[in-house]
Records
---
Amino acid sequence: LVSRKWRVQPTVLDLGDGVTIGEGSLAICAGPCSIESEAQMEKVMAHLLENDVRLMRGGVFKPRSSPYAFRGLGMEGLKVFHRMARERGIKIVTEVMQVSQVEEMHDYVDVFQVGARNTQNFNLLDALGGVDKPVLLKRGISGTIEELLSSAEYVFSGGNEKLILCERGIRTFETASRNTLDLNAVPILKAKSHLPVIVDPSHGIGIREFVPQMALAGVLAGADGIVYETHETPETAASDGAQTLDFDESARLIRNLRRVYQLR
Ligand code: PEP
Ligand code: MN
């Protein structure tokens, strides 16, 4: 069902209030790795609005390698995130980690993110197949393109056709970067599937100073959108600061993304 053979027309998701994801426009989604506080969200949202970006990412349930690392503000944080975003006309993308969260998060999210560690959590995918909100599905840490499409098929066949595929880098033998951003996946996914494809250069390379060029390369590779991490002071971010852009870098990237998109 997610194949181009089944549906030739590209799928374009309408999130309302003029925010769309899919062919015909470039979706830009930015925000911190983790939602940390009202003050932090206030600053990020102001930055996004100044740059005419109305899709914000930010995790409240964080999958961390260490149990001692910051694991997110949970539902309390999500409720504040949602209220502040609504007040400003911003749509939110946030990670759901387990089946039981789908229902409690439902009314407070615009897009459910499935993280790379959960791409093959088939129970979670089944649960998301039954909701009426878009799902941003990340490629698994060591997942093949075919496996990503199979995971998308779970959600789609469950009845939820609002899906976005995300290339976020895979684990390879290379240790010079956090992950290996597989830009090959972009044209391949676009050819194989009618679903929108976006690129996450932040997790893809994991090195702040190189995030912008990989984001731009993602657009040239044919992505329908880019999702990346930004924070007022990346040095103090609760998670992923080393791959997070400050607002100046972010504003420059947004300008360049739009320029490069025009060249396609
Ligand atoms: C994130 O988006 O902050 C995240 C945890 O991403 P991934 O699942 O791709 O590692
Ligand atoms: Mn992150």
---
Amino acid sequence: MTDYVRNFNDGSSAERDILGGKGADLAEMVRLGLPVPPGFTITTDVCRHHLAHGAPPPELASQVARHVALLERAAGRAFGDADDPLLVSVRSGAAVSMPGMMDTVLDVGLNEETVRGLAARTGDERFALDSYRRLVQMFGETVLGVPQELYGAALDDLVRETGVGRDVDLSAPSLRLLVDRFLEITVAHGDRPFPQDPREQLDLAVRAVLDSWSSERARLYRRHHGIADDLGTAVNVQAMVFGNLGPRSGAGVAFTRDPATGQLGLYGDYLPNAQGEDVVSGVRDAVPLARLRELDEAAFLRLRSVMHGLERHYRDMCDIEFTIEQGRLWILQTRVGKRTPAAAFQIAADLVEEGSIDLDEALRRVSGDQLAQLLHPSFDPGAPRTLLTRGVAASPGAAVGRVVFDSAAAVARAAQGEAVVLVRRETRPEDLPGMLAATGILTARGGKTSHAAVVARGLGRACICGAGDLDVDPDSRRMTVRGGPVVQEGDLVSIDGGTGEVFLGEVPVAGSVVARWFDGEAVDGDLVDAVARLVRHADAVRTLGVRTNADNAEDAARAVRLGAEGIGLCRTEHMFLGERRTLVQRLILADSDAERDAALADLLPLQRADFRELFAAMDGKPVTIRLIDPPLHEFLPAERDTEDERVLAALRRMHEDNPMLGLRGVRLAIAVPGLVAMQTRAILEAADDHGSSGGVVEPEIMVPLVATAAELASVRSEIEHVADTVAVERGRSVAYRVGAMVELPRAALTADRIAEHAAFFSFGTNDLTQTTWGLSRDDTEATVVRRYLDLGILARSPFETIDVDGVGALVRTAVEKARAARPGIGLGVCGEHGGDPESIRFFAQAGLDYVSCSPFRVPVARLEAGRAAI
Ligand code: ADP
Ligand code: MG
Ligand code: MG
């Protein structure tokens, strides 16, 4: 027969899957001999059975009865006993912590009869009635579906009528009155009246906890955190201990280290004369844990030694719930405590220092996401703030600035030295100048991989996308939130790209010392030391290289300071923006070879100068330069913005229904004579110039959107021809390599053939994802992808985290074929995924040589590459 119920003294923290986190750690504490009230755990099997069949397994009732009897013996009192009743708590607890998502009911077992027994035994009628009213309320809310406000309002009314200041000051007769009112509320608004039979209370409470697994908020939480819906929760039934039994009693929470900073010490809150729920709900102000020493020194010292013991045992920061009943300490819960990113690094490094874990383990305990948060400025946590609305946390960082509604206004105000937040319904490529000028970006539409999000992350700007409540009206230069205030252009807002919160007015910002340290500044402090230690260890163990995506010397130099080992992607089209756009337009509109050649000739020196600067900034490190990729008509103005007949004609001629799959990448290189030659010449001449001034560089020329080996062979021979010419002109040859960007399924599948012409491959996982899924990122992210995520059809966006099964399989195939055809071939990845922690892990496993990401993600990639290697 399956054991659906397990005593606390029969289990350990290794059994989280079956006992849930809370139950497993309670069992562990019993094993350690800590003072834990006795109890038992109904296993997660029961919840899974309940999910599958709509009811718990039939054997459960008798197994619970047997364990209640055992519990009665251990506690020395009986459930429902009229003179000395046993009361229990019924507590949820899944294997994965889901704080605040599921239900717990305290004081189960009280009724009209046992409440008198409890009063007589303790000699404290007030306490007994206080416990009873708590039970009726919690039971009513969580089991019988009574709206929470009703009890709260009744309590407030009574506190007012009696003229006492707080609920703890209510007299026994007042509490009796309160219980009666609560019982009436329950009859009027509950699914049924409050049950007087203790065993029925217990069964219904267990049922309610099982049901809470499937509540709307629990589902939403799981979706958000990628937790499977079929894990199920355990239910813990535990003898009550009473923190509300007078002034020598109380309840609290404690942390073995500061969960905000990681510093060693005793942190937490204590609330005298209260049950556990009061501490978190904030009904009364708790006192700092240190004050407990003055209130009850013996209990304090006992607690302190338990805390030290737990920390030594778990070799990590622990968070503890405890209750003191008339001077006696009881431990009700422990777990490895949640912490801020700063605390995570501090604690991991300190534990290494203290000799309790090694550096590999320390690296496992921090993450690239945490490091990313530490690299961005953040709002001063203590500062007051007024929330305006929320959106998707698209690019972390805290930004304060004046609202502007278009790129031009952003540029103009920024030129005056003002900090601005660019607010758009969504952004487009032409908003780039405004995005560059802004400290933060806020959009009403789009998600984490919308244009705004991708560009903002690349630029290191704070960004919130898809703030759906926001009605942006650029024409009247204002925005509103339904039912909220009107925000005009020039008003101050503060946005937190790490949380997605938009605040009215200015919230004070604190800069990131960690970012300054990475950037080479001489800053010090415990946190910087901790981060440095772990990142150095990551560098020492990782086999995956880290390059950066950079198109200019400034970004390249920053990335090198941040640890980049080369450029994995220089997008040459970014060199054609701004005033150079007109040169590209001349090229597009050219009617004759002569006109075209003249336009190309004008572009050449500009490109050459760019590359020279880039090579200087990279100082001998590898530089991969991609030939121009986007369709050329992207460089023309929009139809509505021009009256120039020539431009309009060109727009009509070049119109494509599906530009993503149109004339771009290598197709463009083949279709527009002179383009590849100009770019190659600029690259090689710049490399030669760099070499003759004492520098070293072997540029890697990358051909985008290759589908077939013949395309690459064709462009390659043109490149070789130019190289030969330049060598003759310059009197010496310049070393370079030619490679392909692998971003079409066909390229991946025929990687062996393409590899015959390629010295290296770089996986362009953005396009490879689009073309593998047949999903246009810009068109589907806010619609199809978001909807699929909501419905659970997708667990995560393939544009954010590499789709291992599909796109990943293509990558693996290509790696295998490429290495078989050309063993020394260089293999990297340069899509957005190169900066995504989980994807980095995959790329390391797939055996790539490096990932390339935006400069700001370089430290994150270093850390994650290290984590992937241990
Ligand atoms: P959560 O998972 O929301 O923290 P818990 O099951 O831990 O819910 O219970 C909520 C509160 O009730 C906790 O503060 C805990 O200390 C208190 N509590 C739970 N069981 C008991 C008990 N047997 N005796 C006294 N207090 C309890
Ligand atoms: Mg708890
Ligand atoms: Mg691409």
---
Amino acid sequence: AISFSYGESQGGGGETHQVAEGDVAVLTTQQGIPVSDDQNSLKQGARGPTLLEDFHFREKIFHFDHERIPERVVHARGYGAHGYFELTDSLSDVTRADIFQRVGERTPAFVRFSTVAGSKGSFDLARDVRGFAVKVYTQEGNWDLVGNNIPVFFIQDAIKFPDLVHSAKPEPDRNFPQAQTAHDNFWDFISLTPESFHMIMWTMSDRAIPRSYRTMEGFGVHTFRLLDADGKSTFVKFHWKPKQGLQSVVWNEAVKINGADPDFHRRDLWDAINGGDFPEWELGVQLFDDAFADSFDFDILDATKIIPEELVPIRVVGRLVLDRVVDNFFAETEQVAFCTQNVPPGIDFSNDPLLQGRNFSYLDTQIKRLGGPNFTHIPINAPKCPMAHFQQDGHMAMRNPIGRVNYEPNSWGATQGGPREDPVRGAIAFAETAEGPKQRVRSDSFADHYSQARQFFISQTPIEQKHIGDALVFELSKVERPDIRSRTVSHLLNIDARLAATVADGLGLALPDPAVAARPTITDLPASDKLS
Ligand code: HEM
């Protein structure tokens, strides 16, 4: 045992030494070597050069030099908390997934909320989509529902994701603007991508400036499948409904909050949970079959479309409660890795081309971001159920196979041979038939880009509609190129004539020729027909 006295003394340079005593831990290196002096490096003589021999100094500085890891390429700024998912209505009629069987059972969960476009150090109240990523540590492996606070997305096909993100991030020569949608590149891409306009209506609405993470809805966005024990499939859309209600701020407030407290959302979540005011969401599902999918006006594989709740009502099946802040931001919130492909048996994918692309993207980016293939060994990412596999080695390997065998099939028998596959309990993909020529062209069923944008706009109250118009005028007023402004407004003509007129007026533009947009429907408008 090493005993130090705890007290303060002055060193030769006037620095304070706080030394260990009683229960106070002894400062050590990463190798556990006790440290005698943490204020002074080892020198040759009082004024001589620092010595390479000082292993404590070298380790401390080298470790510091490596503290940063790449920030997420999107959703870099986020905030996480622990909680649980509790089933309130069994889904055993449609899925074999263990998590959906027993009413009242609680399963641990971790949630990370985020903005999308801003860097890790950006402000919370940007006009932006919010990520709503949920990891549920089920008894059959981790289920990640990597969603947003908006039920649709900008693009239909994952191959467009790098272009979308490049256009939204700071422009490559000047590296601004940071964390906001108001700039030429973003609106250039949007105005050349008509499928984005439904999402644009949502992002220009109050939904994109939430009052709190606690007052946002969450959506899985894509159509997924639920599979029962016989392999029968039911399509599903996932929804999180906040018990706190849905609340946003107005732009004027958002700008002030960003200036006064850029950490507004993370502070709000931290304070609420630490104060015992645990935020809660209901999990709702929209369930439908092939017959509905075939009869629906839009393609259920198209992530730019919703399925109206009037057509397929939401069935509430559970609740998510966040009741514990993290112990360490970096270890948990920063290192957590969500991935759409993490689904337990009984939950499966649809052929949505955005979802299919996401299933590739997340694992790849996380192998880089978290330094290799073993990031599931980090406690926040590790499943909380039994695990056994033959994957081994790589940087930071902490769960290598035990014993002599690291392959299968093998002849080492039940006790030494390691894990075996299980055709009954194992995940089985839905036996979907796929046919047709290989092709890149999208289905015609993905073609209508404006009808649901219009439905969303007209579903808003007059003041909410005005906010959308104001947001478009503000954002587009930051766009320098007149052709990009006009092209954007020409798309609005296909959504709502008053909205287009209001935005054109706000920008001092003549109403553009609707032929500029992909599918013009309105040719003339009375100038007085404005949003009020
Ligand atoms: C990160 C949602 C589309 C690639 C995230 C996060 C969320 C999210 C919530 C943050 C996860 C966290 O908190 O750690 C969505 C939604 C999408 C979508 C709802 C569309 C419906 C895409 C697409 C791609 C993509 C199409 C690529 C093809 C990424 C990447 C990250 C990310 C690379 C960073 C992951 C990491 O570093 O851990 N996404 N995303 N996303 N997303 Fe998406």
---
Amino acid sequence: MSEVESVQRAGEAKADIASFDPRILVFTCNWCSYAGADLAGTSRLQHPPNARIIRTMCSGRIDPIFVLEALRDGADGVIVTGCHPGDCHYVKGNFRAEKRFHFLKMALKKLGVEEDRVRLAWISAGEGEKFSLLVKDMVNRVKELGPSSFKPSKIKSMEVLTP
Ligand code: FES
């Protein structure tokens, strides 16, 4: 490849990244973080339209497999949110979520997926602004990473998830 071609390709790659519009999936819990997301909306706080929300009853319900499947199926980043520690309506759900999140990070490392594609955050019903900033920050972070290269073939065997 000539020097001109390699410069052209580098330019095209930069253009691809600039036009990259990441898909972000946000898991929320019913009682705190969903209400925070709702407050962001009703307060008309601006954040990029890249996020899709899935409401669960509690962050403790979010299995790492859900996150891996989201990444496998086209999400470029996933945020898991819940009530602040001590505020979970099921007492220990968010502590369970935190443990699972560490496990998820280990699994991502084994799969060769950038850890920054996932994030855990605690958001109360009154933290609409925090939710909005979180989404903005995640979109920017994932834009820097570029599109996810996580391929379905990598998750065919769950062996990779055993510690
Ligand atoms: Fe919100 Fe459990 S109910 S984290």
